[in-house]
Amino acid sequence: MEKKQEHPRREFLKIAGLFTAGLAVARIPVWARGVAFEEYPLHNIPADKGIDTAWLKSLYERGTATAYLKSRNELQFLGMPVGGLHAGTVYVGGDGRLWLWQVYNETIESTHEGIDPKTVNWHDGTKLRKIRVRDGAAYVEPAMADNKRVLEQGFAVKVEQEGKTWVRELREDHWDEIRFEAAYPMAVITYTGKNAPVEVRLKVYSPFVPLNADDSSLPATILRAEIKNISGRPMQASLVGWMENGVNKITAKAGSGKKQSKVISADTFTSIHFGYNTSDAELLTAKDAGSMSISLMGKAATTHASFNPWPVTAESFGNNTAAAAEADGDDKLVGALAVSQQMAPGDTMEADYFITWHFNNPHPGLKKLVKDADGGFEYAVRFKDAAATAAYLAAHFKRLTTLTERWQQTWNDSTLPHWFLERTFVNIGTLATANTYRFASGRFWGWEGVGACAGTCTHVWQYGHTAARIFPSIERDQRQRVDLGVAFKEDSGAIIFRAENENRPAIDGQAGTILRIYREHQMSKDDAFLRANWPKIKKAVQFMLAQDKNGDGMTDSPMENTLDAVWEGEIAWIVGLCIAAARAAQSMAEETGDTTFAKTCAAYVQKGKANMEKELFNGEYFIHRPDAVQGRKKLGSYNTCHIDQVYGQSWAFQVGLPRVLDRDKSLSALKALWKYNFTMDVGPYIKTHTGGRPYALEGEGGMIMNTNPRNEPKPYGEDVTWQLGYFHECMSGFEHQVAAHMMAEGMADEALVLTRVIHDRYHGAKRNPYNEIECSDHYARAMASYGTFISACGFEYHGPKKYIGFAPRVSPENFKAAFTAAEGWGTYSQQAGAAGQQHELKVVFGNLPVGRLMFELVQEWKPGKVTVRVNGAAVPAQFKTEGKRVLIRLKNTVMVEENGTLQIGIA
After folding, report:
1. In this predicted structure, what is the pLDDT of residue 16?
2. Where are the domains of the chain?
3. Residue 841 burial (CB count, 10 A)
4. Is 60 exceeded by the pLDDT of residue 339?
5. What is the mean pLDDT of the chain?
6. Do 10-20+415-793 and 147-397 agree at the fold level?
7. Are the C-beta atoms of 339 and 205 separated by less than 8 Å?
8. How many Å apart are CA 537 and CA 488, to the nearest integer?
9. Is residue 166 a contact partner of residue 404, using CB atoms and an 8 Å limit?
10. Residue 42 and residue 22: Cα distance in Å, rounded?
11. PANTHER family, alphabetically (predicted)?
12. Which of 134, 237, 493, 724 is deepest in the core (most CB within 10 A)?
């Protein structure tokens, strides 16, 4: 285990020698310390991507939900997060057993990072390197469930039939086939056997209700079992579920106390509550001190306060044991609950189990990083222990399971390909890992990746779109409480990019946060959030505008950025991001009636756009213009092809802003990224351009961060530093950002291919599909993936204006997908034919007030009539066309209630 070091992110990487080993052997033009290396390696990404046309066509097909099978050896790496948001990490594995159990407050920077704190070996093409967690260890050598089974937990089935008894556990080696369906937030595992008299299905998830962050943040996992009699004969079937007492699992020693379990029987559920009895004050306040429980809805057939099932036999299902039990501190104490039912042929027995935990002692290191951790976690404010959580879940079980499964059905009731829905949504699981916390104060706080790089870093988290669209209350609170609160400098308007864990702003983080503020305003039901925070928002915008020192609308102040460096000059991706943020600020100023400031922002946007397109576009893509004094002395992207070069326009699409960059130039830049940075096999490139971290390996496709297509001899400056390693990597968060932009611009083929190669990199046969890795596991930037879904839908929304719009980019003639709004969610669909277009919004949860709508014509034509109906009743409306866009204004705002429909006909 590494010795803890108190350093910010750059110093951690620098001290660890993340890139120094690679740089020492890479052929790059560095004259550091007077040593001249060989010329920079030639660009070697082929322009012809060699993409099979049949494969490309298949990416558009609806297909079926991804399933991983035992028979294909695809289960060992699977780990879907199935705990509540901000409640630690609990994985369900490929065979349905829970593993990892990162609920013990161990995760902390430098000593216990990631899901598996270890260093692995990787050969980068020239040299064998040591790769830490934050360098991609889990990408090279994924954690395996069987190596991380911290607690005993599982199920077993017993069948008694015609004098014979048959017993199997729900585990990989007990069944001929196990099928794991992969759609987050619910795992569905099916168990079958050649001679098995039953088929078993297990649904595993935590309550997950979009727009309801509280009920989605329970420290709990639900396991719903279904056993079907497929034998053709009557049987007596039994199911037993067990869980180990995990309290003080790490710190307890022989003689230090007693593990205890107690059966609790309530009207609607049966539970076994686990605790630890000790007089040792240190154990009482240890990071793993707390409580756990296993529960079963309804009355259990048998209860076992102490259960020793290994191997499980017919006798293990026997009569009740004592209602309480205890064991020495270092011994296992397992509790179990069983149900039994007489079953005719074809009958199904259902049993609903759930596991809860309560460990409210944050790591001492976390308390040093953020004082809010002193008060413990938000879930502990709501529930005094695991038993209280279990009681709440039991009382609301029907509602929470119904809504979770309703969302699952709504999300997957779509014309979009299953694989695409899976990959664009999966990264919201990051919120259900040890990467994020909600403290007792209500504050949200996160690492960049699990246990690595503190402070909910603005220049990383601003790439993500998932949380803001699914749980907007969390993001609104973060903007107000932290970005405009703890992190905000009243004197200047600067937003410190890691709040109290830093002392500087980051220019991209500042701009991205302004854009996020606008998005959070749009995802609100009214303008209260914007108006309450406008003075600080305005000051934050003024700080950003002030970083344009020469007044040309292009930011040129040297300032920290997400590539962990301070670059000099005018940098296209930062300039464009600031232009987009200024345009968002213009809209917010207009809405608040601050017309003078709106004009200031509009002038900045106009000047910046014109100059960026004139000065930073090299005829093919956007570049980094060196500082007039510094020149290319320091590290920069300069004339190279950088992945984020038109990021500002990408952001503009996400929040429905008018264009901030010329369409033709934006398309040219994206096509250059496709030509020069994307490859179906990164192997040749990373072998010659060494020093990066392994987030894509030989044989895998990806988009390289920065390439030198013109083969300049010193592409990244005269004094190249360790951050150069980033340029040779494939970081999925950046790739998702580009895919979202490509989709929005009509480059659907390229967007789908780029998303698909990421999806394939994380196929279950190779590594955990639920863990996109950058600087450590479950990296926050990967939540940019949802932006590609937004772009595929052409979704626009503004809650305070009661506006919603769609312009699908995939199969617009017959399209269906989920949507979320400020107060409700549901399904949108459209069909286009010779007689016109039909559009429908169905509200599945909550409500949707609507006053204005936008749709795009599938073919450009002149509509003559628009009809609008709410639940079949006509409502008056006016419309106009702007190119292919049809803009509809209702005479009066309508409220579409839950289970209601809004139908629009364009003829």
Report:
1. 36
2. 10-20+415-793, 147-397, 796-906
3. 24
4. yes
5. 94
6. no
7. no
8. 10
9. no
10. 17
11. BILE ACID BETA-GLUCOSIDASE-RELATED (PTHR12654), NON-LYSOSOMAL GLUCOSYLCERAMIDASE (PTHR12654:SF0)
12. 134
Beta strand pairing status for 334-343 and 235-244?
A: antiparallel
Judge whether residue 832 has pLDDT over 70.
yes
How far is 236 from 341, CA to CA, in rounded Å? 6
pTM of the model: 0.95
H/E segment holding residue 21: helix 20-25
CB 218 within 8 A of CB 206: yes
Among 714, 782, 819, 866, which Cα is nearest to 36's?
714
- pLDDT tens digit string along 235-245? 999 999 999 99
- 397: which 2 tokens? 């079980």
Q: Could you tell me the maximum CA-CA distance found in the chain, to the nearest angstrom? A: 91
pLDDT attached to residue 9: 39
Q: Token digits for 165?
A: 């008894």
pLDDT (mean) for 364-373: 97
With 0-12 / 13-18 / 19 or more C-beta atoms within 10 angstroms meaning exposed / middle / buried, residue 197 is buried
pLDDT score recorded for residue 13: 37
Partnered with residue 832 across adjacent β-strands are 837
The arithmetic mean of pLDDT across residues 212-231, rounded, is: 98
Q: What's the burial of 113, exposed, middle or buried (CB within 10 Å: 0-12/13-18/19+)?
A: buried
**Sign of the torsion formed by the C-alpha atoms of 483, 486, 492 and 494:** negative
CATH superfamily of 796-906: Golgi alpha-mannosidase II (2.60.40.1180)
Question: Considering the domain 10-20+415-793, what is its CATH architecture?
Answer: Alpha/alpha barrel (1.50)
pLDDT at 14 over 50: no
Q: How many angstroms separate the Cα of 702 from the Cα of each of 8, 56, 203, 645, 649?
A: 29, 16, 33, 17, 22
**pLDDT tier, 23 (very low <50, low <70, confident <90, very high otherwise):** very low
Q: What is the CA radius of gyration of the chain?
A: 28
The answer to whether the beta carbons of residues 209 and 101 sit under 8 Å apart is no
Angstrom CA distances, 292 to 260, 762, 791, stand at 11, 32, 42
pLDDT at site 322: 87
Whether the pLDDT of residue 17 is over 70: the answer is: no
Cis peptide before 311 (omega within 30 of 0): yes
User: What is the third-level CATH fold of 147-397?
Assistant: Beta-galactosidase; Chain A, domain 5 (2.70.98)
539-557 mean pLDDT? 97
